[in-house]
Amino acid sequence: MLIENMLMAFSSIRANKMRSFLTMLGIIIGIGSVISIVSVGDTMKGLFEELYRNIGITQAYIAIGYWVDDWRESDYFSLEEMERIKEIFGDEITYIDTDAQTSADAYCARTTVQFNYTGIDYNYQEVQPINLIYGRFLNEGDVLGRRKNVVMDTVSAMNLFGVENAVGKTFRTTIYGTTDDYTVVGIYRKEMNPFQAMMMGANTEGGEAFLPYTILSWPNDFIYDLRFFCRDEETMDELCANIKSYVARSKDRQPEDFQMVTAKEQMGQWNSMLGGLSMAVGGIAAISLLVGGIGIMNIMLVSVTERTREIGIRKSLGAKTRDIMVQFLTESAILSACGGILGILLGGGLVTAGGMLMGVQTVIRPEVVVLAVGFSAVVGVFFGLYPASKAAKKDPIEALRYE
Amino acid sequence: MKSILGGLGRKKLPDYITDNISEDLIRLEDLVKVYDTGALKVLGLKRINLTIHRGEFVAIMGQSGSGKSTLMNILGCLDRPSMGHYYLDGVDVAAMDSDELSLIRNRKIGFVFQSFNLISRTSALKNVELPMTYARKNKKLREERARQLLARVGLGKRAEHMPNELSGGQRQRVAIARALANEPPLLLADEPTGNLDTAASVEIMELFSQLHKEGTTVVVVTHEEEIAAFTERIIRFRDGEVLSDSPNVPREPRGRDSAPDAEEGIELRDT
Questions:
Q1: For the segment A155-197, what is each residue's pLDDT rounded down to a tens digit?
Q2: Which of A352, B13, B141, B200 could join B17 in a cystine, given CB atoms 3.0 to 4.6 angstroms apart?
Q3: How far off is chain B from A319, nearest CA to CA, in Å?
C-alpha cells in the first residue's frame, strides 16, 4: 500500500511537472541555503583546525597578564628561568623558546629586502614540520655557538638572491644595532592553501628567516613571554595550569596574574564562534522552509479540489478516510522530500563549486544531509495534513457529482 | 510505517463481511430519507419497503426527482437513511460509520456509473486493481485477477491502455471489471448506458445479463425502458414511493439492428 501510494504520488507529480517544480522551489531554496550555510561553517571550522594544526595545536605562550598594574622586573623571564622550566617540565614539553622576533633590512649586492627573523631552538623542526629542500636545518652547534646561520623559504630566497637554492650565499643585516654577514644554510618550501595564505599572510615581497634564538635573546635580557609546545594535546590544559602556577610561585605572584594563550584554546573559540554563527544563519535560512511548506500546502489544496471526483471514485471503491489521508500525505511528503533532495544537490553543488574555485576542500556532513531531507519530508507531512484531511473528509456523493 | 498502513490487512475482518447471512440480499424496512435544506425539509424517500433476493436482475426506474438516485445512494452505502433499516446481506448498515460503510462498499458492492468514473492517467489494469488494493490484496494476486477480469469483459489486450485511449463502451467494460474485482454479491449500476450509443448500450446490458446468469445480483437504475427490458423485475418510483413492482420477461439479446425498434418502444410506453 505504501509503495502504491508512492507510485501514485510520483505519477501525479509527473503529471504537473511545472507546477510541482515551482511548488518545490521554496523547499529547494530553503534546503539549499541551509545546506550551503552549514557546509560553509563546517568548511571554515575544518580550515581553522588545519591552520592550527599547522602552527601546532599544542603551542602555548605564557606572559605576565596585561591586566596587571604593578609590573615588576621579575615579571619578565630570563634565559635561566627558561632552562629551569625546561628541566622541570622537560618530559611534557617538547620544545621551548623565547618567542623572539625582529625585523630588519637584508642586503645582498644591490638588493634590499625587509626580513622578519624568528629565533628558534635547533629542535624546532620536531614540533613544526618544515619542508626542507636544500641544505640543512639549524643544529645544536648553531644555537650554542650563536652562529650567524639562517634557514629561509624559497620565496624569500628568490626575493633576496634571485634563486631558490641560495645555500651557502651570504647577506648583510643589522640586528639589535649590530651589522653582520649571515649565511644561508637551508632552504624550505612553504605550502599553504589560499585560506592559510589569507589568514597568515602570504609572503610575496619580503623575506622570512629562522635563526638561532641565542642571537636574539641574551642572558640578561628581559624576556616578555615564553613559547612552548606540549607533548600531548589531551593533557596540555593540566600541564599549562601547572606551568602557570610554577611560574607564579617563582615570581611571588598569583597564577591568575599570568596569561596563557594556547592554540588549542583559540581553535576552540573559533570553532564555537563559527558553529554559533552558522547555526544562527542556518536557522534564518530554515525560515524559508516554512514559506516553502506553505507553498506546498497551497498547491495541495488546489490539487485536492481538482481531484475531488477522483476522491469520490476511490471512496466508492472502498477507500477509507485513512487511505485518502495517507495518499495525499504521501504526495505532499514526496513533493517536499524531492525538493529537499534537489536542494541538497543545489547547496552541495554551490559549495563544492565555490570550494574548487578557492582551492579549498569543502565539508558536507552526511548527518546534515539526512537531517535536511528528513526535515523537508516532515515539513511536507505537516503542511500536507490540512489538505489531506480536507480530502479525506469529502462526502463521497458530493465528490462523485463534482465536475 | 508499514504496520500502520497495512495493519488492516492482517486484522480479522468483521463477521458481517465474512459471513453470507441472508438469502435476502437487500431488505429495506420503512426506509425514510429526509433532506434538510435548512428552510424546509424535503422527503426524498417515504417509508420504502423492498426486498431483493440473491441472484435477481432488477431495474429501478423513475423520472428525475422520483427518488431513484436517493435510493441508489443508500443502496450503494454512499448515504445513510434518515429512518428505517437497510439490511444488506442480513446486516443493518443504516447506523454504520463512514469507514464501516467503506468496508461494506469495498467487499459487498460493485459500482458501475453513468460517466464510467475511471481514474484518469491510470491504466485499465490499475483501475481494476484498485478495489483489491483497498482490500489489501497482494500485488501478484491483484494483477492476476485484474487481467482475468479484463479478459472476461473482452479487454484482455487493452490492459495497459489509459482510459482516454478507450472508447465509451470499452471504458464501461473496464468499470464493470473493476466492479467485479472483490467478487461482491451486489452489482449496482447507475444509468450505466447513459453516455453510450445504442450498440454499446446493448453490449453492456448483455454483459450484465450474462453476469446475472452466472449468479451475480444486478440492480440497474435507469430511466430508459429499453434498458429495463433486459431485466427480470422492474421497480418503478415516483415522488419517493414505489409505484409498481412487477416481474419482467427479459428481452432476448438480439443483434445491433434491434436498436431502432427499441426506440419506438420507448416512445410508445412514455405516452
A1: 999 999 999 999 999 999 999 889 999 999 999 998 777 777 7
A2: B13
A3: 6
